[in-house]
Write a structure and sequence with these properties.
mainly alpha
Length: about 100
C-alpha cells in the first residue's frame, strides 16, 4: 500500500529517470513508513481481537510455555509473562465487568 502511494506520486510528478526516482524515494519514504509505536498499537489491537474470537486456554504450565516461547523469539521471559498476564486480565475484565 505504501509503495503504491509513492509510485503514484512518482508518476504524477513524471520522475522517470531511475536516479531521480531513487532520490525522490529517499526524500519522501519516511512519510509513508509506519513507526514502531504504531505497529505495536496495531499488533496489540489485533492480538486482543484474535483472543476475543478464539479464546485462550489457561493451563497450569502456561507460565512455562510463555517463557519457552519468549526464549524462542528472543524477548525476556519476565516481560513476556507480564505482557500475557496484563493482556489476559484486560480481556477477562471486559468479559466480566465489575458491577
Amino acid at each position: 500500500m505504501y509503495s503504491y502511494k509513492l509510485h503514484s506520486i512518482y508518476l504524477q510528478n513524471k520522475l522517470f529517470e531511475d536516479a531521480r526516482y531513487e532520490a525522490f524515494l529517499a526524500d519522501h519514504w519516511k512519510e509513508y513508513i509506519m513507526d514502531k509505536q504504531r505497529q505495536g498499537e496495531i499488533a496489540l489491537i489485533y492480538l486482543k481481537s484474535k483472543i476475543r474470537r478464539e479464546g485462550v486456554t489457561i493451563k497450569p504450565n502456561m507460565q512455562r510455555a510463555t517463557s519457552d516461547e519468549a526464549k524462542k523469539i528472543g524477548i525476556p521471559a519476565e516481560e513476556a509473562a507480564e505482557f500475557a498476564e496484563i493482556l489476559i486480565r484486560e480481556i477477562v475484565e471486559e468479559a466480566f465487568p465489575k458491577k
